[in-house]
Each structure stands twice: as structure tokens, then as C-alpha cells.
Amino acid sequence: ILFINPVVREEDLPRHVPYGIALLASIAMNQGHQVQVFDQNAWRTDPETIDEVLKADSWDVIGLGGITTAYNSIKSIVKQAKVICPESTIILGGGVLTSIPREIMGFLPEVKIGVIGEAFNTLPEILKMIDVKENNWSAIDGIIFRDKENKLIVTKQRELVENLDSLPFPAWELFPLEEIYFKNSQLIFSEEGMTTKRRLDINASFGCSLICRYCYHLGLAGDMSYSSDKNGKEKVVFDEPGSYTRTNRFHSPEYIVKMVKFLREKYNVDFISFLDENLMTMDQYSGRTWIKEICRLWVENGLQPTCIRDKIPHDETCSGVHWAGTSHATLCNQEVLKTMRNAGCSHLIYGYESFSPEVMKSIGKGATPET
């Protein structure tokens, strides 16, 4: 299996290991598959280098995924892959496919199978089907594929993984951490973020209970469903104003701290960035217990930064793991903020889209300028 991480934002440096691809690579390896990753977003190579990668082996599967800003890169890569590896099964997933599955499959005829929504259980079933050299794709939920007549078929919707702790840790070892990602660790939002030298990102949860009207969750928050168009074809639809559904899921505090401790011991990370849509909505959903327990275990497991433990200014001699995440202005209070700070939280990112009451109300922000 060859996973290729496409270029996401050409104008920016590669700062984030693709969490989804790293997790899917780990799942595939745990099931006995041989996996390689070429991180085009990290290396930013020319097309000739991608040609060499595609020629390096007889790949059974070539998998790509990403958000919509990766479309141009994906389009170029799948064209190359189809020419050089005509017998390989090209699979595409992520937001770029899930947002408009039929359209994307139409734009990219090289792609044989598209994974709609979450791929944690879907990809292993696809790989098993390929292993036994069968093509009964209709039996696999959560995909769109081309039949023998090249018609697009959408299968039943895939159920979300209920127990996130059943997932393995991502395969960070397959990515150029030392060469690329650690060199681009710095974050501009705090002193600790600016001075970090070995940052990695994790997803502690999936979903968000807020209903900001501009936000697109792509099914991970339980906001996706299937319906039929006027011709009887299955189509993917997402929540619209007046009709919202949510499925909030989060790793246990024990799993999260165990993962961070693993990253500290294996890669000597000094900063963790939570990529969650909104940490505070998950804490609210847990009854205000989730963050407190994470913080307690963070300190108990020796991850608390020494500058906070010893009550001294932060500098390059500080040891431990600082961290940061996302929040919502109405969901914070002094108690939880002090608890988070004691465990090493250096900053929280808020979405200040507007301070106009009318605009904030129209976008469903759930806040006012005062709050």
C-alpha cells in the first residue's frame, strides 16, 4: 500500500503531520499490510520524483486524501498514478471526496473507489476485498465506486466508530519528522508555542456540538446522511439550518495521556497541539470532567512543564510538554482555565469572526460581543 499525502497549502510551510493518513497507515500495518508513505506536502518535490515513487514497487493500492485545498495536487497525482500503475487500485478519501462524492469521482476518473466520511473501518474492508481478489464493492458500506459499466454506485452509509480508544496510535514514524515537521514546529499564539522545537498534533475528539452555520464537519460529527435525488440515486447531504444532528466522540483521558507520554518518550516532543474542532465543547459534553481528568493525568505522568511546576519564567531549559487547543468564548471559566494552565496549556484559539451582534446571530455563533 502506498499512501500519498498531497500538497495542502502551497503558500505555507508543511506544519502538520496528516493525522488521518497516519492513523489509517497504522490500522493497515496492524492488520499485516505492507505500507509506505510519500509525503508530498512535506517534501514539495517535482513530478519526476513522484514518478520514481510510483515506479518503486508494484503497488496494490494507492491511497490519497485531504481537504478541498489539496484538490489540484490530488488531480495531478492520480493522473500520474493511473499512467504508471494502471493495475493499482486508486482510493481517495477525506473532505475533498466526502463533500461532493459524485462530482469528485466525475472530475477524477482515475479514482476507482472513494471513501465517504470516516475510513477507520471502511479501508480495512476494502483491503481485505483486494487481498482475496474480489470486487463485490456493494458489500462495503461507506464508499462510492465504479461498476463494470463505469457507473457510480454509492453504498450504504458507514456507521461511525463508537469507541475511539479502539484505534491504534498514528504511524508518525512513516513521516519526515526530523527533516521537515519538527523544523516547522513554531506556533505564533504564545511564547511557549513560539519557542517549541518538537511539536506534534493529536486528535483527542471528533465532532462539535455547536451549530455555526458556516462550518462543515464532513460527517465526523454525525452531521451527514444519505438521501435519494429525483432519479433515485443516493446522494450525501449535510445538516442545514433548522435540522442539526450531532455525534460527539472523544478518547478517554487515559488514552490521550498515554499517547502524549509515548510521544514524549519516543520523539522527545515538547509541545502538543490538539487538532480537535473544539476542546471546550467536548468538555461541556462530558459534564465538565474530561479536561480536568486529562490535566490531572498530565501532571501525574510527569508531563507538566517544569517552568509551571517550579513557578519560574519559561525558557529553553524548560522540560515537559506544553499544549494548546481550540475553544469557544462562552464555554470557558476561571476554574477550568487555571486547571489547564497548571497542566501546561499555553494558549487556546478562539474564532473571532465578528463583533457585530447581527452577524454573530446570523452565523449561529452562539455568542455575543459581551460573552
TrEMBL record:
Gene3D superfamilies: Cobalamin-binding domain. One of its GO terms (cellular component) is cytosol. Pfam families: B12-binding (PF02310), Radical_SAM (PF04055). One of its GO terms (molecular function) is iron-sulfur cluster binding. Signal peptide: none annotated. InterPro entries: BchE-like (IPR051198), Cobalamin-bd (IPR006158), rSAM (IPR007197), rSAM_sf (IPR058240). This is B12-binding domain-containing protein. Its cofactor is [4Fe-4S] cluster. Transmembrane segments: none annotated. Residues 3-137 form the B12-binding domain. The lineage of its organism: unclassified sequences, metagenomes, ecological metagenomes. It comes from marine metagenome. Keywords: Iron, Iron-sulfur, Metal-binding, S-adenosyl-L-methionine.
